[in-house]
Amino acid sequence: xxxRTTADAKGDVVVLLIGMRINRFRAVRVWxxxxxxxxxxxxxxxxxxxxxxxxxxxxxxxxxxxxxxQYWESKEKLYAFATAxxxxxxxxxxxxxxxxxxxxxxxxxxxxxxxYIVPEGSYEAIYGDMPAFGxxxxxxxxxxxKRGRYAKDRFSYRSHGSQKAPVTEKTx
Length: 172
Fold this sequence. Notes:
- Helix content is 31%, strand content 26%.
- It has 172 residues and is of the alpha+beta class.
- A four-stranded antiparallel β-sheet has the order 3-4-2-5. A three-stranded antiparallel β-sheet has the order 6-1-7.
- A hairpin with a 4-residue loop joins strand 3 and strand 4.
- The longest helix has 20 residues.
- The C terminus is likely disordered.
């Protein structure tokens, strides 16, 4: 029997995708520090859960492109970390900006990020025979039946006891 679960997320979900693209493989001295800086920031965040990173997944999109999917406690905690002068992120960004201004990064390595604040009712997750992964690793994992058998039921789930009433058509 397949065990099906879903993420026990409540409220808004904060997701940050952040990564790099190696534009020139031979420019190791340029792109390797970028990659190592991301790994150092993740270690720093793992040691300080109060900063708000709930979970992350390291991924690769190609031999050139590496990224991290991060799940945050709140957008406020994400903003606070991004601007915290005591965090390694601050130092890493300052170094990156200096290199960018002098043209040392141009054509060597690309960097990017996308941030999403996903309102409750606009996400759903299903896992079949999977350990906690992604959203479930960040928010916990519960049996699928607790949120509904169908995606439409999971999308309509509300954590504050205000379950969405089914839509009915009026007849004339």
